[in-house]
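Histidinol-phosphatase, pasting as requested.
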Amino acid sequence: MLDMHVHLTGHADRLATAGNIREFLDQARRMGLKQIGFADHDYYYKDLNLPLIREVAEEYPDLKVAIGLEVDYRPSDEGKIKNLLEQFPFDFVIGSVHEMNGWVFDFPEEEAVHHQKDPDRMYKEYFHWVEMAAASDLFTTIGHFDLIKLFGVRPQTDILRLADAALEQIQKKGLVIELNTAGRYKPVGEYYPEVKIIQEIKRRGIPMTLGSDAHGAEYVGRDLERAAQLLKNLGIKDIIGFNHGQKEYYPL
Ligand SMILES: [Zn+2]
Ligand SMILES: [Zn+2]
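Structure tokens follow.
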């Protein structure tokens, strides 16, 4: 089992101290993980402490510890993101769309706005941004692939048609898509992405990984056993960890 999406510092709730790192790694051990991937939000990059994580990780020889980053993708920021990524030797980088043209759409107070929008146009724009993120050559992984559904607003058009170009680009670039379990705790109440999309991901041969999106140590590994079981039932054979940007395959 892997958890390749955890936020050590949450939303700047705590610092990357040795004690906090140990809490995450202890929980990873309790959950039986083989690899954990730290992926703090890019806007807290000043709190990153890669050397300390590597040092504490030596106390856990049974656990592979990867260090990545979750980046808020905006097409106008590509240069800035590139500069930031060059400053740190990350094992992996998650590209996530949380915002479109200045609208940060995943804040709880945005729920009403979702219901006012034309759902098909909203989904089209969202997946266009995901497609641009995939094409940017900045990322190894695409985060919560269908996040735009979080408040339960569904499109009229078939989701696979809406997501087609984004999936095509992800496949072309050899990127990984995560099954992110945090969607279960949002109004939509299901994983990102939905099962129909996972089936299409498998059909295209796009590799997958698992992530809890934990913003606290107690959530590390949450729901990942059942998520792994779902992937297995859909015929997926392995999931992806990372080491210095290289994929490592873990049989399910
Ligand atoms: Zn995210
Ligand atoms: Zn996250």
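Note for the archive: The two ends are 7 Å apart (CA to CA).
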